[in-house]
Amino acid sequence: MDSCVRALIGSCVKLLVGSSGFQAEGPPTQSYRPSFLDHIASINKKRGKNRLVFMAVENRPKISPHALPPAESATFLESSFFSRNGPGTELPSPANVREQGTVQDPTSKDRDFSFQPVRYEQLGLIVKYGRAPQVTVAEGQLLWALRRVLPTVPVPEVYGWTHDNGQVFIYMELVQGVTLEQRWESLDRVERIEICEQLRVMILELRKLQHAPGDFFLGHINREPLGDIVFTSNNCPPAGPFLSVAQFHDWMEIVIKTGIRHHWPGKELSEIPDPYRNSMPDDAEVVFTHADLHPSNVMVSEDSPSKLLAIIDWRQSGWYPDYWEFWGLLQGSLSRRLQTAAHHRHQASLEGVIDFSSPSDPLSPADLALARLTFNRLLDHCEPIQNNKPYKKATLVRLMHEHSRAEEVYLQKFFLYLGSENGGGGSASSASGVSKGLARFAGFDASNPNDVKKDAESAVDAFANYLFDNFFLPCMVDHRESKIYYHVSDVKASGLLTPQPTPASLSAPLLENVVGTPSRLSTLRRDCLIRDHYRCVATRAFDEDEAVRRYDRDGSEAKDDEDRPLIESKDSVEHLEVAHIIPHSLMSTDSKQQLSDSKKSAIAILDMFAPGVIHEIEGANIDRPTNAISLRYNVHRQFGSFKIHFESMDPAAYPPHTYRVNSAKVGSTPFLPSWLPVIRTFYLSPNCTIDPPSPRLLDIHRSCAVILHLSAAGEYIDQILRDQEEPYIPSDGSAHLGHLVSLKLSGWF
Predict the structure, then answer these.
(1) 368 within 8 A of 9, measured Cβ to Cβ
(2) 360 in a domain, yes or no?
(3) In angstroms, rounded to a whole number, what is the distance separating the alpha carbons of residues 581 and 578?
(4) In 10 A of CB 516, how many CB atoms?
(5) Do residue 251 and residue 337 come from a single domain?
(6) Does residue 721 form part of some domain?
(7) Does residue 284 fall inside a structural domain?
(8) Domain identity same for 56 and 70
């Protein structure tokens, strides 16, 4: 769940940081929507970068380190703890806290550094204690200040703090609720969006804070060093306080160079190149930042609708560059934060650049949530205004998402594409590419300026074209045009059908031992006909060649595999073909036994439907019975054109391998077979020696059929093929011809 909320929180923060990763700071008003660009007062150009700057507001709350309570010890007798628990009540002593801590967490007695907070349920109290940097008085001072100068930011009330034996004890309100991490899965979409909106408002409020006049710095609230865990857990020198953003970035440069110094033996730090320093925005605004907006640090109510109660764990907070909150949500290490701080935009060709292999690390729950929210917002904007010609691109992207068996994989690859398209210029591997894609559009909504919306529309269209050109078009053309095994030869140049291989003799070797495509296909047709009882799995028509063979052998006594007289089937005897479920040429290689880049892209897109499915069809598996069915010629054409599909029936109500043969076009055209829809139970081979068709592959085929129909991409491909057959070139035929030439060059047929 971590990325779920983290992602949505990230989108809220993204609203404050513009596409370049720098903050766009707004005036203090509750009326802000997710985009604040309507309130921009001016655009300053500094260091050659465009920055968004809002008009200054004089009445913004300010915090001065000099106004904070003393760090040594403090007890706030006016707090609700004392009014609620009555006069004479005292805060538990450090000794009592340690004792209760041992009871609540027996392992704490073996530690001297970091401890679980101790809960006093009856007192409505929780005590956070430990040694710096895990626990510092600065957190207590911040809670005290926020409750007074910025009460719109929900934080626990602090009751006091003290020191004992080198440890800090912070006494604060026990918030009666649950973490967003615990609550997230039970929230519906509306509640999730509402929580995100509340977080957005909270972040806006927090960013109203200003330094006291003449007291500018980057550091903790009390001028202590910054406490981000990437600094405190990596043996870094104290992170500040710094007097400028440039000074902060210079310090990070030293830290980075020190960390890689072993790669440069004998070199001084000044001689070691820093790959990030030139990308660090020294002109970034400085804003107050939580720096750890993890879902476990967001407290919400248990009732419905759930409400934001408090943000907890402020130990890493402080004055940071404005991009820090957002990048902190997306990245898990200092180096990754710095890599993504450089957000250069330029178009570049994606051929051979994007690595669409499955990312080695799954999205954190928060990143996944950000991906979901951003994806939905992009499609909610793009789909209603899309141009339906030549096909509905946004609809195709949305339907792919809906039909994916692994949403996370699809979203990763969607944002990897957007990140690579926008970042270009080098290999965009999974982690950095996905982060760039999320950063590019996190926080997007319909109130963004027109240029941002146009960018979103172009990005969604580009991804749709990627799916169309590299998967849907090749699959349909392959099913209908391939001269390899059963369709029109050489892009319909001759107009003649390529005959299917003759079935291998029953004494032929098993499929595992067949070498070479012709032998594999011949054996595949034999096995499918045997398994399917020589009948079309959709119409039940009997194979003409087999009927003649049996009649020649047995005369009028000839029977089918169910021991019924064949003479009764004379009106339903047809030539049958073997139809691949996933196209055969997807796995066909060139003369060097290599897959083309286009086919690698198609395989990557196929993996979006069902990760791991590639293992069912890789290599010779593409020609196994699990990926093929026996069909009558005209039904084969309709199946190959995704006009008909097989929908699995509920196994609790129907026998295994039962399907509804149907069409996504039912009701929209009268020119469909009259027998549709029909329910069929697949036959099994004698003794089940030949595998049945794969339900997963049939389900992918069904998804493709639905997507092609609802997005109108199928009609567009039909038009491309129809135009290619005409003796003249239509007005837009050059584009269609380009599609087919590209497929030909990529080895599809």
Answers:
(1) no
(2) no
(3) 10
(4) 9
(5) yes
(6) no
(7) yes
(8) no
Assess contact for 340 and 330: CB atoms under 8 A: yes
Dihedral angle, C-alpha 118, 121, 122, 124, nearest 10 °: 90
Question: pTM here?
Answer: 0.50
In a domain, 741, yes or no: no
Torsion of CA 134, 140, 143, 148, to 10 degrees: -160
Question: Which token pair is 57?
Answer: 């507001």
Residues 429 and 504 in one domain: no
The domain in which residue 149 lies consists of: 62-176
Question: Could you tell me if 341 and 323 are in contact, meaning their C-beta atoms sit under 8 angstroms apart?
Answer: yes
* CA distances for 574 relative to 406, 483, 544, 547, 683, angstroms: 40, 22, 5, 9, 18
DSSP labels for 173-189?
E--SSEEHHHHGGG--H
CA distance 277 to 341: 10
Q: Tell me the β-bridge partners of 659.
A: 648, 680
Written as one letter, the residue type at 142 is: L
Cα(567)–Cα(560) distance, integer angstroms: 9
Residue 467: C-alpha distances to residues 351, 391, 464, 471, 711 (Å): 13, 12, 5, 6, 12
Give the tens place of pLDDT for each residue, 233-250: 556 788 889 999 999 999
> Distance between CA 465 and CA 392 in Å, rounded?
10
Together in a domain, 665 and 684? yes
pLDDT in tens, 711-728: 999 888 888 777 655 544
Radius of gyration, alpha carbons of the chain: 33
Helices marked H in 120-173: 137-149
Helix (H) or strand (E) holding 169: strand 167-173
Q: Please state, in angstroms and rounded to a whole number, the distance separating the CA atoms of residues 463 and 209.
A: 40
CA 484, 488, 745, 613: dihedral to nearest 10 degrees?
-60
Coil vs helix vs strand at 198 = helix
Same domain, 212 and 268: yes
In DSSP terms, 128 is beta-bridged to: 170
Count of domains forming the chain: 4
Dist. CA 476–CA 718, nearest whole Å: 9
Statement to judge: residues 398 and 486 lie in one domain: no
Using the 3D structure, point to which of 300, 326, 341 is the last residue of a domain: 341
Residues of the chain with pLDDT under 50: 1-58, 331-360, 422-429, 480-499, 502-516, 727-749
